[in-house]
Amino acid sequence: MEKIPLGPMPYMSVMPTVLVGANVEGKPTYMTAAWATVACMEPPMVCVAVSKARYTAKGIDQNGTFSLNVPSVHQVIPTDYCGIVSGSREDKSGVFRSFYGKLGTAPLAEECPVNIECRLFSSVDCGSHILRVGEVVEVYADRSCTTDGKPDITKITPIVYAQHSYFGVGNPVGKAFSEGRKYRKA
Amino acid sequence: MEKIPLGPMPYMSVMPTVLVGANVEGKPTYMTAAWATVACMEPPMVCVAVSKARYTAKGIDQNGTFSLNVPSVHQVIPTDYCGIVSGSREDKSGVFRSFYGKLGTAPLAEECPVNIECRLFSSVDCGSHILRVGEVVEVYADRSCTTDGKPDITKITPIVYAQHSYFGVGNPVGKAFSEGRKYRKA
After folding, report:
1. Between chains, do A143 and B49 touch, taking CB under 8 Å as contact?
2. What is the pLDDT of residues B70-103, one digit of tens each?
3. Nearest-by-CA chain A residue for B3
4. Contact B115 A161 (CB under 8 A)
5. Mean pLDDT, 10 residues at a time, over chain A (186 residues)?
6. What span, in angstroms and rounded, lies between the C-alpha atoms of A91 and A87?
7. What is the pTM for the complete model shown?
8. Nearest of B148, B147, B143, B77 to residue B114 by alpha carbon
9. Could you tell me if residue B9 is inside a domain?
10. Which run of H or E residues covers position A156?
């Protein structure tokens, strides 16, 4: 196959779509983000890249807390709205109903099926963006979106983000830590 | 809706499936990872959480370089194999053909449709895992997996990772920076 160089760019194949929640001057705001993942197993941590220019960034610094909220494919419109409009221009505190968990300052979006409450662990200044690493203090879920006490993507119907578009999750193609057993060396 | 706390855990709704490549003592090895995302727009950076116990971690430290390689759904078996078997026990240098780019020490898996070549920028010790932040020095793609010079997921057919299983990308549910314009305040 023919490989071609495409130049350096911030590429990732597929990403989650989440809403980063923070209190700015005591009021909740949410911004859409896709540059998020798990950062550590033990203690459990997640991370999200947030532009320095973002209004939500102020809230993360003010409180040392933030949340990641997982919207469903049925919430594409309010989710995308939080990525278009800045909290510095428009009050986004009413886009989702907020509730608070253990930390008291990380707003959690009630309508989102899963909410991850985080205490800021580290901020890595990368340039245009600061990578926010947060220790997960609690995960909340709608009971109706869980199976055997765990979040269930068939019920959550999360949004996959790729090349400036939103997608659902596709068909299963295999179990992890299982498919590889079929591997035979050439 | 009824919210229930599920306890702190390393949760993310959906994730990419990638192969982290590094040279350990001059020889390429690949490990499967899902805890990866973009870390910065400018300069372009990506990050991936790698367990301290991983053989591949040695290579990242030895060279200060690594790669993220995007396999397709047709490569689930060799991809998952690289997550089951440790490079300390089995030589994984033959699972993929390796090529090298600008840095010379970050092996890139030729069979994977997209390859991201990285220079280590920062290592954040989170506990069980170290978050490896890398500056993207080049992105390579199979010409057949691009459209107008950009990677195209309809041709790449990347693997989505969620709750210990692999999935394809599902149906489109909207364009980013567009759907939100339909939002009307309650």
Report:
1. no
2. 999 999 999 999 999 999 999 999 999 999 999 9
3. A142
4. no
5. 94 98 97 98 98 96 98 98 94 96 98 98 98 98 97 98 98 97 84
6. 6
7. 0.97
8. B143
9. no
10. helix A153-156
Could you give the ipTM of this predicted complex?
A: 0.97
B1: in domain: no
Contact assessment for residue B78 and residue B30, using Cβ atoms and an 8 Å cutoff: no
Check A10 against B101: CB less than 8 A apart.
no
What residues of B are in contact with residue A32 (Cβ under 8 Å)? 176
CA torsion angle B89 B93 B95 B100 (round to 10): 150
CATH number for the domain spanning B56: value is 2.30.110.10
Its domain, for residue B104, covers 15-183
Place of tokens 């390689």: B69
Q: Assess B156–A contact: CB distance below 8 Å, yes or no.
A: yes
Q: Tell me which chain A residues have a C-beta less than 8 angstroms from the C-beta of B6.
A: 138-141, 146, 149-151
In a domain, B65, yes or no: yes
* Inter-chain touch B124–A133, beta carbons under 8 Å: yes
In-domain check, residue A76: yes
Query: How many domains does chain A divide into?
Result: 1
